[in-house]
UniProtKB/TrEMBL annotation:
Alphabetized PANTHER family for the sequence: BETA-METHYLMALYL-COA DEHYDRATASE, MONOAMINE OXIDASE-RELATED
Pfam families given in the database record: MaoC_dehydratas
UniProt name for this protein: Dehydratase
Membership in a protein family: Belongs to the enoyl-CoA hydratase/isomerase family.
Amino acid sequence: MTTTPRTVEQRGLWFEQYEEGVRYLHRPGRTVTETDDVTFTTLTMNTQPLHLDAHWASKQPGFGGKRLVNSMWTLSTVVGLSVSQLTLGTIVANLGFSEVSFPNPMFHGDTLYAETVCTGKRLSASRPGQGIVHLEHIGRNQHGDVVCKAVRSTLVQCAPAGHTSGEEG
């Protein structure tokens, strides 16, 4: 008799699987290149010379004459690094970001590591089978310095009926 092997499809966490206070580490990190920064900056129509003009940046005080990585690239990548572990296929919508900050700069060649803390969750009062999950995303460079923090609210699907929270796939 031939048996069909169990299959597991990678996806994010169901609402029930989020645990308040848990710190989820997202690996691997992502090393930012000059191409990443210039491409992102020009695609988003950000003409800030601090990102695009090495000569101009070399004459500015404060960052050792180096160009800064576009902070929106940093925020986008921090959230992106969390997707496969937390929200892939289980998120319904981003509800909003708050308290976004960039306490330290990122430079070309830095590696960005992300982590997320679930700071709260509740079932949706208006959308059965879905819940609101509050996440604090933190980005750190290769030295452990915090380069990005953002609080995000998401709408997430509850597990399908008959699905136990410990199951994969």
